[in-house]
Specification:
Blueprint: E1 5-7, H1 8-14, H2 20-28, E2 38-40, E3 43-47, H3 48-61
Length: about 60
């Protein structure tokens, strides 16, 4: 399985064109359990599989 890392802009697009502030709020809200980023040279990246899994779990509970 490929372990693809997504930058914040791609994560915002996948999550419905959310703003950077919304992404920040999701990260700060422990109840949402949004995946934490990996930092590489002070830039944030997320594992694509983690984002997809989180989105799938939100669809089931919605």
């Amino acid at each position: 399985m490929e372990k693809k890392l997504l930058p914040a802009s791609a994560v915002r697009d996948i999550c419905g064109n959310i703003s950077d502030m919304t992404l920040w709020r999701w990260l700060a809200d422990p109840d949402l359990d949004f995946p934490k980023p990996v930092y590489i040279s002070r830039r944030r990246y997320w594992r694509e599989a983690d984002i997809i899994e989180w989105l799938d779990s939100r669809e089931v509970s919605a």
